[in-house]
Amino acid sequence: MEAVKALHVITGLGVGGAEQQLRLLLRHMPMRCDVLTLTNPGPVAEGLRADGVRVVHLGMRGNRDLGAVPRLVRFIRRGRYDLVHTHLYRACVYGRLAARLAGTGATVATEHSLGEGEIEGRPLSGGVRALYLASERLGAATVAVSDTVAARLEGWGVPAARVHVVPNGIEAVRFRFDEGVRRATRARTGLPERAFVVGGVGRLVPGKRFDVLVRAVAALPGAHLLLAGDGPERAGLRRLAAELGAQSRIHLLGERDPLGDSADGRTPGIPALLAAMDVFVSPSREEAFGLAVVEALAAGLPVLHVTCPAIDDLPAAEAPGARRIGTGTEELFAALRGHMEAGARRLPPPPVVRRYDIARSASRLLDVYDLALSAAPGAAPTARGAAPDRRTPGTAADPAPDPAGAAAPDPAPRPAAGLTVPGPGSPRKTPGARG
Q: For residue 202, which of 213, 190, 191 has the smallest C-alpha distance?
C-alpha cells in the first residue's frame, strides 16, 4: 500500500507545550511527516531535525503577510501531501486555507491552547473568534487536547461532530524517579542535599502567575524554588525575588528540554529537575491541558494546581497525588508549609499517567487521520497502513518555499480574505471520540 505523506504546519518552533508535543507525537507516527514552521525555527526545530524529520521555515513576516498563503500553497502542491495537520492559531488560519487552495482534501487542525478568555496567552476578541470559525470550516476535523477545550470549541459554534478529543501524551518512562539522579541534579544546580524544593515548569508569562509561586516560596524559610522556563516575566520575577530577600533560594533556570538532559550532559532537562523536586506547583488560572502536571505525577511528585483539565476532567481517583487549590498566595503558602512539615515523600505514578501515554494519543490521532483521509477526494491510503519513511536531515528532494516570491505585507487587515470557500461535508465521528 502506498505510504501516506503528511505535512504538519505550525506557527513557530520555539520551546512550548504544543511544539514539544508535536515532536513527541511524530516519534510515534507510522508515516512520513514533514514539518513547516511559519516563523521562529527555534530549539524544537533542531530537535526535530535530530530525530530525522524534515523541517522547513516559511519565513512569514507577521500576521498580515498574506504572501505566505501562495508560498504555502506552492509548497503543499509540490510536496504532494495526502494530509495537512495544522497547529496553533496562525498556522490553523493560514494552513487550512492553503491546504484547500492546494487541493488537499484531508486537513486536520489541533487546538492546543484555548482558554475561556484567551488563546495562546493572548486575549480573545470577536474578530479572532470569527476568523477562527471561518477557517475551521475549511478542514475535515478539529482536534481538542482535552474535554475542556472541546466544550469551549462547541461553545464557540464548532459543530460537535467535527470535534475529536486527542489528549496530550507523555513517555512516562522518562520521568521515572531515580534517587541517584535526584542527588546528582541537586548538586549540579547548587541545591542543599536536604533542602525542601518546590518546582514549576512553563513559559514565564503573566497568565502562568509564577509571581504567586515566588512569593509563597520566599515566605518559607529554607525552601528553594526551581522554575524551568523563559519568557518576558523573567526579569520581573528576578526583581521580585530580590525584593523579598530570597534571590539565593529562587532559581530561574531558563528553558530546559522536556525529553532529557542536554547532549553534553551538563544541563539537566525536565525529567532530572523533577527528580530533584519535593512538590510541584501549577499556579496558572487557565490551562488547555496541563502537560507539566502529568509529567510531575509521572515523576511521583505531589502536585498543587489551580486548574488542570488533564486532571480536573477525570475522577479524583485517577490522580490521588494532585490537589486543587485556590488562586491566593496565602492558600498556596499554607499548602507548601504542610508538605514541608510532613517531609519529602515519593508517590507511585497514578493511573492518569497510563491514560496519557503518548502511544495511546498517537493511536487516537491516527483514527482522526483515517476519518479525514476516507472523506478526501480520491480515497487516499489509510494512515495506519503507511510505512515509516524518515528522511535524512538535510535531504532536499522536496522543494523549499520560495521566499523571493512572497508578496509584500498588505497594509490593510484582510486576513479573512478567501475564507468563504464552502467546507466539506460533515465527517463521521472517530470511534470513541467525544460527542
A: 213
Helix axes 126-136, 89-102, angle to 10 degrees: 30
- Choices 3.40.1080.20, 3.40.50.2000, 2.170.130.20, 3.40.720.10: CATH for 5-169+357-405: 3.40.50.2000
Per-residue confidence (pLDDT) for residue 2, from 0 to 100: 52
Classify domain 172-355 at the CATH topology level.
Answer: Rossmann fold (3.40.50)
pLDDT at 397: 35
Alpha carbon distances (Å) from 143 to 6, 111, 163, 211: 16, 6, 6, 32
User: Dihedral, CA atoms, 25, 28, 33, 35, nearest 10 degrees?
Assistant: 20
3-state secondary structure of 213: helix
d(CA 382, CA 77): 20
Query: What pLDDT is attached to residue 385?
Result: 61
- Contact (Cβ atoms closer than 8 angstroms) between residue 33 and residue 390: no
Sorted by where each begins, the domain ranges of the chain are 5-169+357-405, 172-355
Q: Is 229 helix (H, G, I), strand (E, B) or coil?
A: strand
DSSP state of 278: S
H or E element in which residue 271 lies: helix 270-276
pTM for the model stands at 0.83
For cell 530570597, name the residue. 246
Cβ atoms of residues 257 and 273 within 8 Å: no
Please give the C-alpha separations between residue 87 and each of 35, 142, 210, in angstroms, as whole numbers. 11, 10, 26
pLDDT at residue 61, rounded to an integer: 87
Average pLDDT along the chain, 435 residues, taken 10 residues at a time: 83 87 94 94 91 95 86 96 95 94 94 79 79 90 94 91 95 96 95 95 94 98 96 96 97 91 88 98 93 97 97 94 95 97 92 96 96 77 54 35 35 30 35 39
Single-letter residue type at 263 = A
Shared fold status for 5-169+357-405 and 172-355: yes
At residue 365, what are phi and psi to the nearest 5 degrees?
Answer: -65, -35
pLDDT, residue 432, reads 37
Ordered alpha helix ranges (H), 55-118: 68-79, 89-102
Q: Is 201 helix (H, G, I), strand (E, B) or coil?
A: strand
Query: Which of these, 273, 295, 293, 274, lies nearest to 283 by C-alpha position?
Result: 293
